[in-house]
Design a protein that fits this description.
Elements lengths: L1 E7 L16 H15 L7 E4 L3 H14 L5 E3 L10 H9 L4 E5 L3 H11 L14 E6 L5 E7 L1
Parallel strand pairs: 1-4, 2-3, 2-4
Antiparallel strand pairs: 1-5, 5-6
Length: 150
């Protein structure tokens, strides 16, 4: 069964501190904690993708270090906060790999809703910074939420 891990970037510094929005120390610490908790569930990741924003790259690197040091992370276009989800949605439904997508709100909420409900709808969980939702595609091709850490 295919699993998709949707992860929101860690807490970033404000633009008043750094215009590049790198992770704050608190964001790094929270992401480390979530990654270590996720490791207890033994995720088997084939790829880790992140948007072109520094904060998602740094978050993806932390998850890679803890969960899958053998992988390289890959920046993907089309995963910024306001990007349309359709291309990624169709790609996810076509693959048989276990991947992690590190991105932003509202992109992650919209993608999760489309995968779980087939349409835009309110989620039953809150993507706080560093949170991870694991969705699994069953044999009948329906996605279900199997784990949430946040």
């Amino acid at each position: 069964m295919t699993k998709i891990y949707l992860a929101r970037h860690g807490l970033a510094l404000s633009t008043e501190v750094d215009h590049g929005f790198p992770l704050a120390e608190q964001g790094k610490d929270e992401t480390q904690k979530i990654a270590r908790a996720l490791k207890c569930f033994d995720p088997k990741l084939d790829n880790i993708y992140h948007s072109n924003k520094l904060r998602t790259q740094q978050t993806a690197e932390i998850f890679r270090e803890v969960l899958a040091p053998h992988l390289t992370i890959e920046m993907r276009e089309g995963m910024k906060p306001l990007d349309a989800i359709e291309d990624i949605y169709h790609e996810i439904n076509a693959i048989e790999e276990n991947i992690m997508i590190v991105s932003h709100l509202p992109f992650l909420e919209q993608l999760a809703a489309k995968l779980l409900y087939g349409k835009q709808a309110p989620l039953c969980f809150d993507f706080s910074t560093s949170a991870v939702a694991c969705l699994e595609k069953s044999f009948n091709e329906h996605w279900k939420l199997v784990l949430f850490l946040g």
